[in-house]
Specification:
Two copies of one chain form a homodimer. By secondary structure, chain A is mainly alpha-helical. Chain A has a domain of 93 residues: Winged helix-like DNA-binding domain superfamily/Winged helix DNA-binding domain (Arc Repressor Mutant, subunit A), CATH 1.10.10.10. Chain A has six helices and two strands; from the N terminus they run ααααββαα. In chain A, strands 1-2 form a two-stranded antiparallel ribbon. Chain A binds a DNA duplex (30 and 30 nucleotides) through helix 4.
DNA sequence: AATATATGGTCAACTTACTTGACCATTTTC
DNA sequence: GAAAATGGTCAAGTAAGTTGACCATATATT
């Protein structure tokens, strides 16, 4: 592969990722959820199943636990999450989504589906599937990190 | 396409984009360029051919011209760019890369090539090509924006 | 069992990378 | 030639992270 082709791949990947983020955000806002930032979405995916501790969240997001705690403060203030006592560890607290938090999560999923549908319109179903499979194979482990 | 498949695609795309950014940054640092942020790379790609004005740069990056100006201040302070009078418009200034700026650009290109090579090792050349073509077809116009 | 160390969490202060608002110099429009 | 638009900067404010200090509880050491 030529150097310029690698650069084109890199630029396209980053541009598409930026556009995806923007359109998810717009879609969530369009569904009536304001004051939500992209970073909150990644917190939601970690909180969604059964809740998580602030420390879990910090590791998932790749930030300090202080930053994660401030983010939880914000989610609580906006009514998307709440802190509950942690069963079995009196130091810890379990952060869980409220009903509003679940609704916002569903809105984000709808927004994602909408964007992917437009990609399907351009590429066709088979190529979208191939894109997904290729990306899954090169997906790294480790914390979710902003693309820049 | 199922909703969960769309979510998997979205998550993989964002994770790969974040990892790419991180590895480019690491590669540039490993080649001896310190104090460079990912955002500088996008500025470099705009400045590279013939230079650009601060306003051009702001549009390219999707930020205010004040922010672009501050970013140029930083690049100048670090020796990667310089402000020259603009030929044909005495209001404007042409921001161009210094030799050090070009060297840093080349280092970033090498780092990108290195990452894409590892993807080639996992996917094979044909699938990397297909990935590039698919991404190019869904690449949006407009300013480069952070993925979150 | 008692003590030492590690872990979960928060408070406070600081930093960074942006923003908005005001303003000046030059260019373009009419 | 005057009015409006454009390129750029200065200054101050804001958002989202950081580091450092600290407390409460849990785990490990002896």
């Amino acid at each position: 592969m030529q150097n310029s082709e690698a650069m084109a791949l890199s630029a396209a990947l980053l541009a598409v990722a930026g556009e995806l983020t923007r359109r998810i955000h717009d879609g969530v806002v369009a569904r009536g959820f304001e004051g939500v930032r992209p970073a909150h979405g990644f917190a939601f995916t970690r909180l969604a199943p059964d809740g998580a501790t602030v420390t879990d969240l910090a590791a998932h997001l790749g930030v300090t636990k202080q930053a994660a705690s401030q983010l939880v403060d914000e989610l609580v203030r906006k009514g998307y999450a709440e802190r509950r006592p942690h069963p079995g560890d009196a130091r810890a607290r379990l952060v869980v989504l409220t009903e509003s938090g679940w609704a916002c999560t569903r809105a984000a999923e709808e927004a994602v589906a909408e964007v992917v549908r437009t990609w399907g319109g351009v590429l066709g179903e088979a190529d979208v599937r191939a894109l997904r499979e290729a990306l899954l194979r090169i997906t790294p482990d480790g914390p979710i990190r902003p693309a820049w």
